[in-house]
């Protein structure tokens, strides 16, 4: 199993990063928040989980072993595969996910695309005693919104947009009361706005 990769970032896309390791470019799927921390040409280290299927070998990357552990844990629940597990960590950070599961917060869990009420209930029942303690309540607030704004702006600038363009687009998304609040959703909506302008 490939448990981590370290090397120079060759490219950063919307859903993955390519890291050069000993002359080989490894595509690693990860969350928008993690992608926002990576820069082309810079050194990067990611904790990874290798998922092997009949037709593919896919690497999933995380900033630390804690996030990787949760990614692997939630896949022990029936109906949860690697893509859905990654979506959970794109919408909820590890502490928020732990809190939602341990407290039975179905509203938070169903914010993840692909998880309905029954799926959320199954997660709570099967993982409540396995997720471990949280270090914070995990409730979204002003600090979380500020962190989301910063992460999305950095990600968009990394994709080649100007700081002014990205700030205007991200602020427009965050100002919409019916708009997304999670990093992945804000990133997608901001990209749509920037695509119309270009």
From TrEMBL:
Q: Which GO terms describe its molecular function?
A: ATP binding; four-way junction DNA binding; four-way junction helicase activity; hydrolase activity
Where is the Helix-hairpin-helix DNA-binding motif class domain positioned along the sequence? 72-91, 107-126
What single Pfam family name could you report for this chain, choosing any that match? Answer: HHH_5
Q: Identify the SMART domains for this entry.
A: HhH1 (SM00278)
UniProt-annotated stretches for the region Domain III: 146-198
**Signal peptide annotation:** none
The record describes its quaternary structure and partners as: Homotetramer. Forms an RuvA(8)-RuvB(12)-Holliday junction (HJ) complex. HJ DNA is sandwiched between 2 RuvA tetramers; dsDNA enters through RuvA and exits via RuvB. An RuvB hexamer assembles on each DNA strand where it exits the tetramer. Each RuvB hexamer is contacted by two RuvA subunits (via domain III) on 2 adjacent RuvB subunits; this complex drives branch migration. In the full resolvosome a probable DNA-RuvA(4)-RuvB(12)-RuvC(2) complex forms which resolves the HJ.
Starting at the broadest rank, the lineage of the source organism is:
Bacteria, Bacillati, Actinomycetota, Actinomycetes, Pseudonocardiales
This protein's UniProt keywords: ATP-binding, Cytoplasm, DNA damage, DNA recombination, DNA repair, DNA-binding, Helicase, Hydrolase, Nucleotide-binding
Matches recorded under HAMAP family: DNA_HJ_migration_RuvA
Family the UniProt entry places it in: Belongs to the RuvA family.
Q: State what protein this is by name.
A: Holliday junction branch migration complex subunit RuvA
Gene Ontology cellular-component terms listed: cytoplasm; Holliday junction helicase complex; Holliday junction resolvase complex
